[in-house]
């Protein structure tokens, strides 16, 4: 099988090493960003390939090709995996579209929110010739150790949900990817579930908000731990954000009998399901973060400044998880007429820190909406419109409520 991995960061390194270690697969890497193709080629020359240290052993393999050029890397591939932050999905999809093989599987690890909406827009007419898929999260917590040569898997999730478009293709893709990735994959009904089930949209902005919404601008003496920095106040914020997503889930399920959003799990349930063996103390949401071996030692995005460290508000915990996560869910809540006051507080704070304008007086009509995957960006402004995309065209009980 010929596989192309798009991306040059932690996930792409890990995936490339794991897949290229198998003799039955040919792996190509597409890295158009900066000088990454050259750096990766140099690394591979020095190390002979990519070595991945995992909790269950060391795997290594050499990609067949590393290229900044989409045609070289993508033409002929049966499986194209975007293993990069969601803000790079659109440009990557636009670059590879002309070279996609009809029938190819094209997906993202992880999808984050609204991947299907963004991918269908970016691929345009080509979308009908491929199958899209997305994973609810990356199966691993992983980091590059030496660029182009070595990565480490700090922890692996027990199971991950996967959605596809067309939805009926999900079981087949799940079975093949499960075998390739060595992680249990559960096919779920559709991308609507996957979007709402994105826990990164809660965890990353929620912890950033909890850590820094009252920050006085003074430098910190050292870089803060991220997940282990979750105290009971931050856990409460996460819990309340999760509860609002659950309100949205149950609101939609009530209006659309037959709609199954069961993969949209409360945060604590998702933690216990994803990391059953890695969590030492499962008694509270706070302890699930603080005692999770897979999260141990991971730092908060911060940058060195005079006198210490300052939060990095441009890092992906906001730059990815707001426009391609929480805002997508907020856009769905808007068309469903479900209130999300805690999420709104986090969004209002985060957009100011990012220097962006998404929400204006509670409405999704800010100047930067075009660089998000909120449904409103794709002119989806009613619940009926949204649900017809996911094959729930029947009139909802109680009628639709338009909104943005
Ligand atoms: P990363 O920060 O290592 O990825 C950075 C890479 O993305 C860059 O090296 C570059 O190759 C690519 N990139 C960035 N901006 C780009 C642009 N404008 N155009 C083209 N390419 C660009 O991210 P990662 O750790 O590999 O994570 C990938 C995805 O997995 C993200 O969605 C992340 O939230 C998710 N995730 C990661 C982990 C983890 O442990 N690494 C865990 C859970 C989820």
Detail the topology: elements first, then pairings.
Layout: E1 2-6, H1 10-20, E2 26-30, H2 36-47, E3 50-54, E4 57-61, E5 65-67, H3 70-74, E6 79-82, H4 89-96, E7 105-108, H5 115-123, E8 131-135, E9 140-146, E10 150-156, E11 159-165, H6 170-181, E12 184-187, H7 191-196, H8 200-212, H9 232-255, H10 267-274, H11 285-290, E13 302-305, E14 308-311, H12 316-319, H13 322-336, H14 341-354, E15 359-360, E16 363-364, H15 383-389
Parallel strand pairs: 1-2, 1-6, 2-5, 3-10, 6-7, 7-8, 11-12
Antiparallel strand pairs: 3-4, 8-11, 9-10, 13-14, 15-16
Helix pairs in contact: 4-5, 8-9, 8-13, 9-13, 13-14
Describe the structure concisely.
With 404 residues, the protein is of the alpha/beta class. The protein has 15 helices and 16 strands. The chain is globular.
Description:
- The chain is of the alpha/beta class.
- Helix content is 38%, strand content 18%.
- The protein has 15 helices and 16 strands.
- It has helices at 10-20, 36-47, 70-74, 89-96, 115-123, 170-181, 191-196, 200-212, 232-255, 267-274, 285-290, 316-319, 322-336, 341-354, 383-389, and strands at 2-6, 26-30, 50-54, 57-61, 65-67, 79-82, 105-108, 131-135, 140-146, 150-156, 159-165, 184-187, 302-305, 308-311, 359-360, 363-364.
- An eight-stranded mixed beta sheet has the order 5-2-1-6-7-8-11-12, with helices on both faces. A four-stranded mixed beta sheet has the order 4-3-10-9.
- Helix 4 (89-96) runs parallel beside helix 5, helix 8 packs antiparallel against helix 9 (232-255) and helix 9 (232-255) packs across helix 13 (322-336).
- The chain is globular and about 50 Å long.
- It binds nicotinamide-adenine-dinucleotide (NAD).
- The site of nicotinamide-adenine-dinucleotide has 25 residues, from helix 1, helix 4 and strand 9.
């Amino acid at each position: 099988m010929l596989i192309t991995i798009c991306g040059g960061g932690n996930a792409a390194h890990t995936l490339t090493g794991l897949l290229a270690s198998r003799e039955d697969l040919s792996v190509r890497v597409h890295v158009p960003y900066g000088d990454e193709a050259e750096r990766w080629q140099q690394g591979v020359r020095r190390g002979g390939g990519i070595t991945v240290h995992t909790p269950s052993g060391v795997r290594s393999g050499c990609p067949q090709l590393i290229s900044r050029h989409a045609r070289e890397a993508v033409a002929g591939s049966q499986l194209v995996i975007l293993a990069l932050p969601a803000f790079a999905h659109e440009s990557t999809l636009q670059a590879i579209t002309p070279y996609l093989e009809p029938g190819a599987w094209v997906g993202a690890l992880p999808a984050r929110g609204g991947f299907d909406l963004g991918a269908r827009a970016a691929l345009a007419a080509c979308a009908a010739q491929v199958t899209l898929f997305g994973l609810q999260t990356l199966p691993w917590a992983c980091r590059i150790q030496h660029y182009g040569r070595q990565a480490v898997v700090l922890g692996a999730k027990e199971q991950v949900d996967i959605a596809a478009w067309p939805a009926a293709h999900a079981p087949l893709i799940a079975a093949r990817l499960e075998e390739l990735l060595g992680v249990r994959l559960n096919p779920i009904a559709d991308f609507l579930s996957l979007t709402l089930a994105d826990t990164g949209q809660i965890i990353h902005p929620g912890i950033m908000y909890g850590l820094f919404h009252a920050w006085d601008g003074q430098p910190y003496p050292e870089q803060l731990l991220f997940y282990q920095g979750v105290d009971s106040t931050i856990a409460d914020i996460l819990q309340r954000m999760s509860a609002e997503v659950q309100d949205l889930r149950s609101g939609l399920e009530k209006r659309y009998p037959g709609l199954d959003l069961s993969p949209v799990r409360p945060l604590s349930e998702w933690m216990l399901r994803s990391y059953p063996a890695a969590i030492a103390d499962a008694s509270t949401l706070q302890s699930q973060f603080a005692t999770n071996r897979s999260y141990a030692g991971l730092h908060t995005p911060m940058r060195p400044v005079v006198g210490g460290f300052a939060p990095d508000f441009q890092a992906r915990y906001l730059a990815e998880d707001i426009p391609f996560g929480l805002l997508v869910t907020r856009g769905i809540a808007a068309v469903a007429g479900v209130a999300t006051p805690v999420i709104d507080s986090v969004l209002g704070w985060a957009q100011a820190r990012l220097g962006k304008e998404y929400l204006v007086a509670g409405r999704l009509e800010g100047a930067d909406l075009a660089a998000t995957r909120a449904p409103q960006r794709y002119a989806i402004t009613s619940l009926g419109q949204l649900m017809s995309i996911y094959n729930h065209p029947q009139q909802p009980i109680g009628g639709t409520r338009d909104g943005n």
